[in-house]
From TrEMBL:
UniProt protein name: Ribitol-5-phosphate cytidylyltransferase
HAMAP family named among the record's database cross-references: TarI (MF_02068)
Source species of the chain: Kandleria vitulina DSM 20405
Gene3D superfamilies in alphabetical order: Spore Coat Polysaccharide Biosynthesis Protein SpsA, Chain A
PANTHER family: 2-C-METHYL-D-ERYTHRITOL 4-PHOSPHATE CYTIDYLYLTRANSFERASE, CHLOROPLASTIC, RIBITOL-5-PHOSPHATE CYTIDYLYLTRANSFERASE
Cross-referenced SUPFAM superfamilies: Nucleotide-diphospho-sugar transferases
GO BP annotation list: cell wall organization; isoprenoid biosynthetic process; teichoic acid biosynthetic process
E.C. code: 2.7.7.40
Site positions (Transition state stabilizer): 14, 22
Family: Belongs to the IspD/TarI cytidylyltransferase family. TarI subfamily.
Keywords associated with the record: Cell wall biogenesis/degradation, Nucleotidyltransferase, Teichoic acid biosynthesis, Transferase
Top-rank taxon: Bacteria
Amino acid sequence: MIYAEILAGGKGTRMGNTAMPKQFLMLGGKPIFVHTVEQFLMNTRIDEIIICTPEVWIAHTRDTLKKYIKDLSRIQIVAGGATRNDTIMNGIKFIEETYGLNDDDVILTHDAVRPFLTQRIIDDNIEGAIKHGATDTVVEAFDTIVHSVDGKIITDIPVRSEMFQGQTPQSFNIKLLKEFFENLTDDEKEILTDACKALVIKGHDVHLVRGESYNMKITTQYDLKVANGLVEGQKI
């Protein structure tokens, strides 16, 4: 089976003083995460959509979905974890307990606050996860990347043509990802906060899927203004 796991477990502290986590803020007349869910619902290859949200917001998430989406038969809501990786594994645990795990099951993990992903990106992630076992969505880095260990002095300036900016989805064969996480030490789990990085560090190839510059993550108030501009532009 092919699962989409929408990561809506964050508190969105960089958004500033808001009444609710950023994934529930309005964007073009709907909460941000609803736009994201709709993109996955449009893709008929996705069998189930797992939304991982803070436990105290589960009822709000369910009520919001009922308001904006008619058919919820492919959607499940699960409590998120303390970290991103914990949240991913909570979703996988739910899948295993509810449906069981097959050797060819894949999961697309995606930020709830990236509502502008395309069907092409979703399809490429599905194909990549089936073929390679692990994929990461990226775009080329157009600006020079500066590395600094202490945040004060340049440590290195990597070759720009070899640099990419990570987006989501990050997609995996579920059994592969589960095995890698179960073999991490507690110290590694603290350090390896990105699922793809965990696989790379452990020696597994992660293949690239090309994203889009507008597949942006809405993190700040400025991002939200830009996103609203994109939504308004789509109406023209």
